[in-house]
Amino acid sequence: MTDSGRDSMKHLEEQLGAGTYYKRNLELVRGQGARLWDAEGREFIDCVGGQGAANLGHANPQVNQAIRDQAEKLLVCSELFYHRERARLLENLERLTPSSIQRFFLCNSGSEAVEVALKFARLATGRHEIVAAMRGFHGKTFGALSATWSKDYRLPFEPLVPGFTHVPFNNRQRACDAISQRTAAFLVEVVQGEGGVRPGTLDFLLDVQDRCTEVGAMFVVDEVQTGFGRTGRMFASEHFDLFPDLFCMAKSMGGGLPIGATGVSQEVASRLFKLAHSSTFGGNPLACAAANAAIGYLENFELPQRAHKLGTQFMQQLRSIGSPRIREVRGLGLMVGVELKEKSGPYILKLMERGVLALAAGPTVIRFLPPLVIEESDLDRVVELTAEVLQ
Ligand SMILES: *Cc1c(COP(=O)(O)O)cnc(C)c1O
After folding, report:
1. Which residues line ligand 1 at a C-beta cut-off of 6 Å?
2. Which is the closest atom of ligand 1 to the Cα of 223?
């Protein structure tokens, strides 16, 4: 394509898209594993990882084959009917999620998985108050947005869903004080993603879990970003032995295709009724087939273990950069944040100029979410270039 052709493509997105996104001046055309190529043939190491949706790597051969096979047979099959791939997926989720989680509502995105969890928590408790964490991110539909912390996202859309309060993340006392007999649910990420890559502490997570049990509130874990191998375990809840009542998944669940799910305990399931929630595309054969292939690949190639090993090395190497601009390097597995003492945006752009795509997480954090299949040598290169731009 000519330069002017490419310019007019970008122009179309700018003029005809709703305009709700910041965009980087890059037109991507192809991916393979943890590499991406733009329309001019430039190659990038991908540490954006589809904001957490590309754990399996781009053009994953097994996921692609499953998508091709299923597309040949049947795309549309709502939950009015049975489908083999859906049944297999439910079985996979039951096996892999914490043992307290036994049944699943299939949906299409992370926000939707959170909406469903909030609705089901109301049904299970007959209460409506929700406690969430400061700096938490749960999506931008009305229910999920009410739980999200950022005022920039929330205030323009008030009035939101009533009954939400926020407590400081990792503050056991404040959280336990806020969770009462009136609380329907405490909703939390195990590692906060958008809020700056902040791992929860063991004490905090176990104490809020106990407090929820004590007062009959639902303990709701949002693993939309931490799920499917990202943090070094299939789910981050495993690091802390969590037993949630409700469990939200999406992002990498479909190996890149849109799909989400809300897991529920047997007790929550017993309070649900027919059509308490529904979704036209929920549990569609294509997304289910992709999810089964993605789960198979994660397990066969031990990607959670790989994320643990590479993530630990990567964080050590980043810490050894020793740039005076760095305040802290933190994370879990291959969910890694470098907090700076200044704004991270300019450095993310400099990394892009040098061939590394990274993300922000709040104003001062550089976030790395590479596909879990990334080569060790690519991560070495990312460390080198990060050191170079931060010197
Ligand atoms: C991305 C994200 C969501 C929202 O997911 P969408 O698919 O964008 O709706 C919810 N919770 C967490 C923790 C996320 O990272």
Report:
1. 109-111, 114, 137-139, 189, 193-194, 222, 224-225, 250
2. 13
Task: Could you list the beta-strand ranges (E) of 169-268.
Answer: 183-189, 191-192, 198-199, 218-222, 246-249, 260-264
**pLDDT greater than 70 at residue 1:** no
Nearest atom within ligand 1 for CA of residue 251 = 7
- To test the pocket of ligand 1, the residue of 106, 112, 225 to mutate (highest count of ligand atoms within 8 Å of its CB) is 225
pLDDT digits (tens, 9 = 90+) for 10-22: 899 999 999 999 9
Nearest CA among 284, 232, 242, 294 for reference residue 265: 242
Within this chain, do residues 309 and 291 fall inside the same structural domain, yes or no? no
Q: Are 49 and 147 within one domain?
A: no
CATH number at residue 53: 3.90.1150.10
Protein residue whose Cα sits closest to atom 5 of ligand 1 = 110
Q: Does one domain contain both 205 and 343?
A: no
pTM: predicted TM-score of the whole model, two decimal places = 0.98
> Looking at the predicted structure, is the pLDDT value of residue 9 above 90?
no
Residue 105: both structure tokens together? 């509502």
